[in-house]
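Risk register update: the risk of archive-format incompatibility is retired. Evidence:
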Amino acid sequence: MNPNIIFADLPKVPSLAKAHGIAMGIAFVVLFPLGAFLIRFVRSKHAIWIHAGCQLVGWVLMIAGLATGIKMGKILDRLHNNAHTILGTVVVVALLLQPAFGYLHHLRYVKTQKKNVWTHLHVWYGRVLIVLGIINGGLGLRLARDTPAYSMAGTIVYAVFAGVFGGFFFGLVVYVVMRGRKSNEAGLRSGKVEKLGGGGKNGEGP
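Archived output:
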């Protein structure tokens, strides 16, 4: 028997686990991928604010999920002595920097109307952390087995949503990357044709 477990607070664990799972699940499986999708495909001057609002709500839920997770970890003596809590802490801390990267990207983009180093950092940093967050949800469910925090229904719901939204997000990333490569190849071919036709804008030779 683990003497570090706070047995008097064990009745609180199921409620904490539910709150933690719902908050983190909505943040990483729904809102963060949805925000990434909207900024990419919604053609509106308000897209940036829709994206920011979506991510902000997810960010708040993530912090709430962190708080409930820490409380539950202390009760069960599973705070930073397992893969789920360690990876979760790293992901949350890393995501605290994401709004700053997004703001720097936006400032530079407004001035140049072109992608920049902050654009690529913000986009890929976010994509990696979303994937790690979804994976960590599975690690959390595995960790919860044989504890008062475990819920078969919660496991099934998370698996379904993570499979659907996670698969959609992965497919979206692959689509965007492939489309970017095709666009770059088309640009290179266009540049070669322009050089062969001459140096002028209208294709005339010197």
